[in-house]
Design goal:
Layout lengths: L1 H7 L3 H15 L4 H11 L5 H24 L4 H9 L4 H12 L1 H17 L2 H6 L8 H6 L10 H32 L5
């Protein structure tokens, strides 16, 4: 919805939001200030902190992908819907949202894959005594002095791969449509 408003309403504030999101893609993640901020907020080590960090990291990319896709949707569709009496939120839900299926599936699958495979954010921001993600749990399968139970490690890696593989195979056609549709302007 943010991308739709930023693309369709071209005013000074929306241009600022667009540039701010672009900066979010360019700027690197800084671990120490983020951890300090989470401690100051009192949510360091919780699942909430991890959810907020993932949202902050992946929102700019997702928004820019949606924006590039929405630019390709003709404004005439909006105008025709308004003439037919569809305005505001219902315009977005009934007219625009069905057109966004490919890019929604693309961003959903990509974000799921990135979050599922992430190790660093969970390692930095979770209380590892209480919470562990699958990638952290797999890392703990290493024994002392570099010894590794290869059977357990490979089994865990296959189990970690299965949800991503199934998710990708179910949405493969949407990924291709979503990535290529916003790339070429017609």
């Amino acid at each position: 919805m943010l991308s739709y408003i930023v693309v369709r309403r071209r005013n000074r504030f929306n241009r600022f939001i667009s540039k701010f999101l672009t900066f979010g893609i360019i700027a690197p993640f800084a671990a120490l200030p983020t951890v300090q901020m989470l401690k100051l907020m009192g949510i360091y080590g919780t699942r909430t902190s991890l959810v907020l960090i993932y949202a902050a990291i992946y929102l700019p990319f997702t928004s820019m992908l949606f924006s590039s896709f929405i630019v390709g949707i003709p404004r005439e569709l909006d105008e025709a819907a308004v003439i037919d009496g569809c305005t505001g939120f219902s315009l977005f839900i009934r007219i625009i949202m069905p057109l966004l299926k490919p890019v929604t599936a693309t961003t959903g699958i990509l974000n799921f894959m990135w979050v599922w495979n992430d190790f660093l954010m969970a390692y930095l921001c979770l209380d590892l005594q209480r919470f562990k993600t699958l990638s952290i749990a797999i890392q703990y399968l290493k024994g002392g002095y570099g010894s590794v139970d290869m059977g357990a490690m490979m089994g865990a890696l296959v189990l970690a791969l299965l949800p991503i593989l199934v998710f990708y195979l179910c949405g493969q056609k949407y990924i291709i449509k979503g990535v290529t549709a916003g790339a070429v302007k017609g």
